[in-house]
Amino acid sequence: MSVIETVTGQSDVRDAGHCQPHEHVYITQTPALLTNPELRLNNLAASIKELKLYKEAGGNTLVDANPLATGRDALALKTASEVSGVQIIACTGYHIPVFYTKDHWIWDTPEEKLEEMFVRELTEGMFLGGCYGWPSYQTDIKAGLVKAMLTQEGVSGRTRVLLGAAGRAAARTGTSLMLHTEYGKGALEAVQYLTELGLAPERILICHVDRQVKDLDIHEKIASTGVFMEYDTITLFEFHDNESEIRMLQHMAGKGFLDQILISTDPTADRLKSYGGRCGMDYILKTFIPRLKECGFTEGEICRITRENPGRALGK
Fold first, then answer.
1. Which domain holds residue 222?
2. Per UniProt, which keywords does this protein have (predicted)?
3. What is the largest CA-CA distance in the chain?
């Protein structure tokens, strides 16, 4: 039986249902909130209300994409899951620099120690806190995914150390790894490095490549490695409209990559209805999928993108 590791325990991957693999449910205790108001998802009641709207629209599972020491709260995520009925997969790993102070331990902890921390969060339980000091209180709520990122420097310097710790932790535990990229830059080099560490391409989810939907050559090159293309900028209309996103999806499906496509919204507070935003976590179900159907995607193809592919990408 293939399973997914959720904040309420393991679940049969066949019960995952509609799954959006890059969402943000609740964020607290991070310096990023001080200067980035769009990241202030720190009202648990509002977060639960948003999850309920997602559930009512047909959503069943999602990934909360904030990892260790970036405002992730394992206890809050478990409560939100239990109250809303939505299965939540939490992340360990590391995130973009805005989430950390300049003297944060993420920048100087040895790679082996970071790897062990990530493995512990996957196999024993996630830690609370960590935004301002080394975390000490460990819960029994396990992470089910590893988060990693690339900056403009690519796979070099400190980023290479962090990516190495994340990749080895994922490979050791049979867990998938979600890789934040800037428009897909550096993704090919990162995939090569991660596979050298023992992580199979089908265990890797590449994020944010659809922040640009004009040059599809890079999309094809990344997908040709066998990774999942996590298209997560739906509702980010400053990058593109729905029609451009759908043309990209049609192109990639036509090139034979349908079974590697995932879709999500990567929301901030200004795009979550329960925080006064404009779209909602249920936007894909209520607006985007109907538009996919109008543009020729069949029920079977949509099921593969929103149910079968996430199950393969996140199950172990």
1. 3-314
2. Hydrolase, Metal-binding
3. 52
Q: Flag whether 241 is marked binding.
A: no
pLDDT at residue 153, as a whole number: 82
Based on the structure, what is the number of domains in the chain? 1
Burial of 108 (0-12, 13-18, 19+ CB in 10 A): exposed
Nearest to 86 by CA among 153, 178, 157, 20: 20
Q: Under a CB-based contact definition with an 8 Å cutoff, are residues 231 and 247 in contact? A: no
Q: Are 62 and 86 in contact (CB under 8 A)?
A: yes
Q: Which residues of 251-278 are buried (b: 16+ CB within 10 A; e: fewer)?
A: ebbeeebbebbbbbbbbbbebbbbbebe
Integer Cα distance of 34 and 170 in angstroms: 31
| pTM metric for this prediction | 0.98
- Tokens (6 digits) for 202: 């089908």
Q: What six digits make up the tokens of 266?
A: 């990567």
How far is it, in rounded angstroms, from Cα 43 to Cα 247? 36
250-305 residue pLDDT tens = 999 999 999 999 999 999 999 999 999 999 999 999 999 999 999 999 999 999 99
How far apart CA 183 and CA 181 sit, in angstroms, is 6
Q: Is 266 annotated as a binding residue?
A: yes
CA distance 179 to 204: 7
Q: Report how far residue 208's alpha carbon sits from residue 266's, in angstroms, rounded to the nearest whole number.
A: 9
287, 234, 231: which is closest to 53 by C-alpha? 287
Residue 147 known to bind ligand = yes
**Residues with Cβ < 8 Å from 214, sequence gap 6 or more?**
none
Residue 207 pairs with which residues in a beta bridge? 230
Q: Which CATH number goes with the domain that contains 177?
A: 3.20.20.140
Q: Does residue 240 have a known ligand-binding role?
A: no
251 annotated ligand-binding residue: no
Going through 101-198 in order, the beta strands assigned E by DSSP cover 145-149, 177-180
**CA dist., res. 35 & res. 311, Å (int):** 36
Please give the C-alpha separations between residue 63 and each of 7, 146, 237, 272, in angstroms, as whole numbers: 10, 11, 22, 16
